[in-house]
Amino acid sequence: MCPPVQMESNERALLNGMSPLLSLLIIGSLHLASTERPMKKTLVFPVATDTSYVELMPQKDLSIASFTLCMQLATELAKGKREIILFAYRTEQFDELNVWRESDGTYQMFMQSSKNGVSFNLPELNTIQTHLCLTWESQTGMAAFYVNGKRSLRKLYKMGHRVLPGGRVILGQDPDSLLGNFDINQSFVGEITDVNMWDYVLSTAMIRDLNDGKWVPRGNIFDWETINMKLNGNVTLFSEDL
Amino acid sequence: MCPPVQMESNERALLNGMSPLLSLLIIGSLHLASTERPMKKTLVFPVATDTSYVELMPQKDLSIASFTLCMQLATELAKGKREIILFAYRTEQFDELNVWRESDGTYQMFMQSSKNGVSFNLPELNTIQTHLCLTWESQTGMAAFYVNGKRSLRKLYKMGHRVLPGGRVILGQDPDSLLGNFDINQSFVGEITDVNMWDYVLSTAMIRDLNDGKWVPRGNIFDWETINMKLNGNVTLFSEDL
Amino acid sequence: MCPPVQMESNERALLNGMSPLLSLLIIGSLHLASTERPMKKTLVFPVATDTSYVELMPQKDLSIASFTLCMQLATELAKGKREIILFAYRTEQFDELNVWRESDGTYQMFMQSSKNGVSFNLPELNTIQTHLCLTWESQTGMAAFYVNGKRSLRKLYKMGHRVLPGGRVILGQDPDSLLGNFDINQSFVGEITDVNMWDYVLSTAMIRDLNDGKWVPRGNIFDWETINMKLNGNVTLFSEDL
Q1: pTM (2 d.p.)
Q2: Lowest CB count within 10 Å: A28, A46, A101, B142, which one?
Q3: Which residues cross the membrane (chains A, B, C) (predicted)?
Q4: Which pLDDT value is given to residue A79?
């Protein structure tokens, strides 16, 4: 949950010169900030930019041989328009772990490279929230996506590989250097919430439970309940009741 | 529920010179008319025309500053083929409130204009029934679609505007005058059921309940249980058990 | 359930020179073969070929005037790429009963012909399992698809027709003769499971129950629990826990 005080100052700052979508969302969060109900926080990227992004501070180094990464996404950028970066973990040298929605509507994961990713033909992203998870395990190289709790075909990718520490995780932009060299035509536009990451592979049953709002172990790399984020540029965090 | 007597006369009339789809549906309704089970009525537009439409008689004037409009839709007209009118409220002067599925698959709402609508990238319509709702509120201008109970991103549209009374509501055609000037290439082909409309914004939880078949307050503009309709041209109302 | 002994020999044979997807799945099944948990078997067609197919041995002749055919499908072959054969029942003379995903993403059923099928605009197949059923009844000619338990619009097709016995049922290829003349560009690539077929039309409620994993009468033409299959070429049967 984002602290109310910080939110209110964000809101005031943003009330000048913001987009219609943004102002709407802030009206919503102002209204809701006065209640005691359980709240859900969501990142809003209202327009395409090459400057706006959110850095996520992991609870531990991304020195990992397996992972589960989940998030909820909604976007107006339909298939056929352009590619969209969904998650970027970049070190000085490499795109260590990137997840993309390609312009043809497929999804792709890249490890330690921006070439030779592994591609999946999933249902299309749209303006309704999609619950997306991605699992990968070094020992077998097994990779799979989950959409709204249902698993994709599994594919082999980078068996024996290990994700290296020392980089930065951002949402909203694809960095071609550590935290820079962004391209507006790859930026994310829309809403992101429920970003969670584990350094192990959750079972299919757990990911179905997560999608259904049931209890699963909290993410030990990112836990959306307690996550530490740095917002940069035209991106805002709003809360609404569940 | 449509009255059995009227249905039977409809059916007999339509058994001459009707389309294969139509005849099938009538066979179904004849069979079902003899039972006591709870029935659901559905409008069938079997072919594209510039003459077939259904006028809906509202329970109160459409002089409204907010609304929720819901309907279930199924169509064989895939994205990429052509635009489809989903709902039209037309006064002498204006398209007061129109809802479209555009040819690129997006959805668009227009108020008091056929230009400058607000567009949403929703899941595609297809031959499986889609439960679609649209909410709008003048005070904030907030608009949102719901597909099968799940909300889209919200957008601002026509803040402070008011829908004016004195028009006519039709399904199946886009009127460029009060009840005329139809275009076959904009007509609806497929099935429409569960058309309900309220003069206020239902909560996300209520729209989820409506999609799940749970109780919500009945529409005070249109209530599909008791709605008064006038069928024109090659369109029929059939009933089947729930 | 495939017999464990046969599976293990399959697995050993396939560990030499197999595709990455295949090897992954075998690792999974080796692991699972040692448990006592309830298992689900799935056919995997890892790559496009004009040689790999699975023949299904029906419990009774396909001399039928109505049917329900169900299966679960997952594929990476997106719409726009090419057509895919989903089910083929071929006699010496005819394609008695074929089901296709066309290249434009629509689905088509053909009876006793490879022309003049009946077409449906359904949600797209993708790498997430889709539960697909198709019903047809000679008396009315009524045909309908069901996707994940939800019914399509109904259409009339081949009223009064009867499916003739004496042919062979295969998955994976479109035979232009009894069991031959395959075309690599029509082959199925992906996973198929839960193939069941009845010589009557299941109700909408039953098909919804089947999709929800509830009890329905077992298929009397094909019953996936006890089905007898012959695997040919690069196709494998693996089991995983439910």
Answers
A1: 0.80
A2: A28
A3: 13-33
A4: 83
